[in-house]
Write a structure and sequence with these properties.
- The chain has one domain.
- It is 40% helix and 9% strand.
- It has a 4-stranded mixed β-sheet with strand order 1-2-3-4, with helices on both faces.
- It is globular, with a radius of gyration of 22 Å.
Amino acid sequence: MLRGWYDAVAAVSTTQTVLGDKENKAKTKQFNSYNDNHVVDLAEIGGGECGEDVCNEVKCFAFAKKGDTPGKGSRGTSDTVCPATGHMIGFGNTEEECRLNNLGCRERGRPSDGPFDPKTGKGHVKKKKGDYHDALYNKKNRVDVLLHENTSAFSPVAATKIRRLGRKARSGIDRTAYKGHRPLSYVSHHTRAISMSIVKADAWTVFHTTAKIKSELCRLREGAGRAHRGGA
């Protein structure tokens, strides 16, 4: 999925596009110029409208949650709790929490107002620094949270970005290596590639998890069989 976004951005970019590497500490040091304490997934150097760097955080979560969260705000010393509304709203279980963790939020209301209630819009929410606090407030960079769910759906921010890149492709450079006899637009080509990577990764996750559980059940069955024969 991240490689798909890299291909989409690099195909129309007039500046350097760099992939982050959280596992390579030596390579990670170069990303301190974009954001301290958190490695950028995809950086567009000087790719902003005013020449600022663009930090892209690419995420993919499961759309469903085991439990329901009412979404009450600050409770004592705990952090803000986001509501789980995925059964009613697209990205209702994932987007708010993802934005809060990466972009942070300002303090809202007063402690005496009680916990924030999303149904009424009243209550207290504590200030929280996101993973990209340094990029936003110190380095004045732009941060795009490109969120997906395992259904291969695009969040509003991700959909807006791919359409913006599509407009750049129509009016400027497009290095996309299109394949097949049927012509596709830039947006169709790259959204299909990104969505396909999500679906494949999710399918492999299910396959490997199923195989692991099956092997564990087989071992238990073999152990039970030997114990039964020994007891007989």
